[in-house]
Amino acid sequence: MKTALTIITFFISHLLIAQTIATGEQHSLSVCQNGTVMAWGNNGNGACGQGFYSNPIDVPTQVLNVTGATMVAAGDGTSLALSQDGSVWEWGENGTVTPTQISALSGVTAIACGSSHSIALKNDGTVWAWGSNYQGELGDGTNNSSTVPVQVSDLTDIIAIDAGGRNNIALKSNGTVVTWGRNTYGAIGNGTTIDSNLPVDVTGLTNVTNVSCGSGFSFAKKQDGSVWGWGYNYEGQMGNGTMIESHVPVENTALNGMILVFAGWGHAGGIKADGSVWTWGHNGTGKLGTGLTSDELGPVEISTFSDVNAFAPGGRHSMFLLSNGELYSTGMNDEGQCGFTIGTTFYLDPLLISGTCAIEVTGLEEVETSNEALIVYPNPAENFLNLNWELFTDKNISAKIYSSLNKLVKTDIQYNSIIDISTLETGVYFLEIHNKDQRYFERFIKN
Questions:
Q1: Predicted TM-score (pTM) of this structure
Q2: CA–CA separation, 414 vs 399, rounded Å?
Q3: Which domains does the chain have, with CATH numbers?
Q4: Sheet holding 408-410, edge to edge
Q5: Across the chain, what does the average pLDDT equal?
Q6: Which of 105, 128, 133 is nearest to 117 (CA)?
Q7: What span, in angstroms and rounded, lies between the C-alpha atoms of 201 and 44?
C-alpha cells in the first residue's frame, strides 16, 4: 500500500464540484453545482437579480435568467455572472434589475468587480472594463465613464485579473504584474501615489503565479511561495504586523505557505495547503470570524473548519467555502448579507448558511484510506500526480480534473500513467475517475 497524505476519501455516485462565491458591499452570490446562481442581501438596487427592487433578501434566492454559470463577482451594488459559454451577465447598480447578457462580450474567461466598475478577461489575453472611470478604473487612457466595455490599453497577454475598490490588477503570462486606477495609498505599486488611467508595471515583481486586489491594497504570490503586498494598511490589511502603507511590494513572511490569498474591503484572508484558513485586517463587524471585533495586524487561524477552498471578504461580512460545498458566513447581517434572518446585527463566528444550493448527494460513504480506496499522492503536489491504478480492474476508465471553479482543466489522462499537472495554476483541484458505473472523486492541491 502506498502512503498518502489524504487520510479520508469519498466515494460518490454523482460528481460534486464545490460552489464558487462572491461578496459585495452588502450582498452575496453563490454558484451552484448545476450552474444556477443564488443571491441574498441588499436588493435596493436589484443586486439580487429578482427582476425588481425590494427590501433586503435574507434567504439565498435563485437569480433569474442565468444558467451554466462558472463564476460570479460582486461590487457595491453590481453583480456579474460568467457562463460556461464565455458570455457575461450583469444586474444591479447599472439599473438592470433582471440579469441581462452583455452583448459586447464573448470568449470571457474571468470577471471581477470593483466598487463601481467591472472588468473581464477574454481568451485572447485582452482585458475589458466598464463603469465608473473617475480615477482611471477603466484603464483606457481617459477618465470617461462607460456603460459598455472598453478595452484596457496595451494588454494582450493577461492570464488573471482582479479588481477592488477603484483599482485593478492583472497578471501577465511572463509572470509580471500590472495595475491601474486609484493610487491614493500606493495601490498601483510603482512607488508613487498618482492615479493612473493606463496599466503600469508593478515595481520589482517577477515569477508571480497569483494576484488579488482589495480596496486600495493588493497581494501577489510568487512561484517560490512568497507573498508580497502593497498599498493601504491603516487597518492591518497587509497582514505584516504593522499599519504602515507601502507604495511598492514588500514581502510578508507571515503569509508564506498560503496557496491562495484573497484581498477584500479592509481585510483579507489566505488558505494553506492543509485547508486551514487565516484572516487579518479590519474587524469592526466581526467579518474576520475570530469571535472578536478587534482588528488583526497579522494572520489568525479560524479553527471552525480545516477544509476550506475559498474565502470571500466582503464590505462588512465574509464567506467561507468548504470543499464539500458548504458555505459559512460571519460579520454584519443588517441587510441579510450573511444569509440569516435579519434581527441579529452581526455574527462574530462563522455559521453555516442553509439552502444555498439544492444539491442531492447520493451513494455517499466515508472510506478509510487503504488498497480499497482511491489514493492520490503526493498531496499537495507540484508537477506530477499519481494514484493507485491497481484499484481499477477495468482499464476502460475516464479520468478528468476540474478546478475549484467547476472548470474542466484536463482530460488527457491515460490508465496507469503519472499525471502531469505542471501546467495547472496553484490552487485546489478535483480528480474524477469514472470506472464502469462508479465514480471516484478526490480533492488535491497543486503547489
A1: 0.79
A2: 8
A3: 20-352 (2.130.10.30), 368-446 (2.60.40.3080)
A4: 365-368, 8-12, 438-446, 427-435, 397-403, 408-410
A5: 87
A6: 133
A7: 38
